[in-house]
Amino acid sequence: MGCLVGLGRVLIVVINIIFLILGLVFLAAGMICLVGESILKPFYQSVLDSLESQLESNNYGTVDFSSFSLSSLIGGLGYFFVGLGLFLIIITIIGCCGACCKVKYMLVAYAIIVIAILAGEIIFVGILYGSPDTIKSEIKAPLKTTIQSDYVGFNGTNIVSLGWNFVHREFKCCGVDTYNDFTGGAKWNTNYGTGLKAPITCCETIPDATTPTCATTPVNIYTKGCFDEVYNMLLGNVGLVAGSIAGCGVFQLVLIIFALIIFCDARQSSKVNPNMWYVYFLMKHSIPHVWLKPW
Predict the structure, then answer these.
(1) Cα–Cα nearest to 161, from 174, 175, 147
(2) Region 41-61: what's the mean pLDDT?
(3) Radius of gyration of the chain measured on its C-alpha atoms
């Protein structure tokens, strides 16, 4: 039992150090998403410069993308990463302290948290690959709503317009599902040629302002929806994602088992043999009191 407890303590500490590093990485990534615009800008500035020059050279007038900020666009993701990083850091500290010092309430709290995470992962994987439309529909609906209410067009300077124009060119896609997501947009300026039916930035090649046929017909535009394009890039590899989550699940199961073993050992060690109270009672009443005093 002693060897098993020792192995469990070492294993919990080592695995939690790995998760601590992972938590710090998520925390750093979240902070970069929120306030690291100067770090992110070199990675996407070429896309904006190319789009700006193409629009201006095709007689769409002066287009200014200087106000575009990727940090503002992905700010929500930044908060998610920061929260995830802090969460991982907290539970790793609880796990390490509980294992090293055999703190029973920490071990119990750690086991409960890991069990809850494991259950959440199982539910998430089940929904993600068993009923993906449940997740997709919840994300797509607000995206389409913002398009209808805030998208202005290729020359829009608000974050929704700049964001979608950037995504169209970077991922070679159009809208959430199709270009029809923009139809009837409250602020969308369609007064080009015979009337735009698709955003100019959805055209495979930016057309001349006098004959934007690709966007008015529409033809020769990106037909892939941006949501599916990004979704497949992040979660489309079923084997990789499921395998990664399954691997984490195995580690978590091992952590739970060893945390409970250490807890049981700590609980056993903290028990006082009831016979010792009887021995103490006899000594106190049978041995002269002076003998029990320190010299």
Answers:
(1) 147
(2) 84
(3) 30
CA–CA distance, 198 with 219 (Å, rounded to integer): 9
Q: pTM here?
A: 0.72
Give the three-class secondary structure for 203: strand
Please give the C-alpha separations between residue 264 and each of 104, 125, 269, in angstroms, as whole numbers.
9, 32, 9
pLDDT at 13 over 60: yes
- Torsion angles phi and psi, residue 185, rounded to 5: -60, 135
Residue with tokens 């007689």: 59
Q: What are phi and psi of 136, to 5 degrees?
A: -60, -45
- Taking CA atoms, 286 is separated from 34, 79, 277, 280, 294, in Å, by 73, 69, 14, 10, 17
- What residue has token string 């952590």? 255
DSSP state of 176: S
3-state secondary structure of 222: coil
Owner of token pair 């259950």 = 119
Give yes or no for a cis peptide into 218 (omega within 30° of 0). Answer: yes
Does 238 score more than 80 pLDDT?
A: no
Please write the tens of the pLDDT for every residue from 216-229: 999 999 999 999 89
Strand, helix or coil for residue 53: helix
Q: How far is it, in rounded angstroms, from Cα 150 to Cα 148?
A: 6
Distances (CA, A) of 173 to 76, 103, 222: 22, 54, 5
Considering only CA atoms, which of 83, 87, 143 is closest in space to residue 113? 87
Cis amide prior to 199 (ω within 30 degrees): no
- Average pLDDT in the chain: 84
Helix (H) or strand (E) holding 60: none
Is-contact 226 176, C-beta < 8 A?
yes
Cβ contact 209:58 at 8 Å:
yes
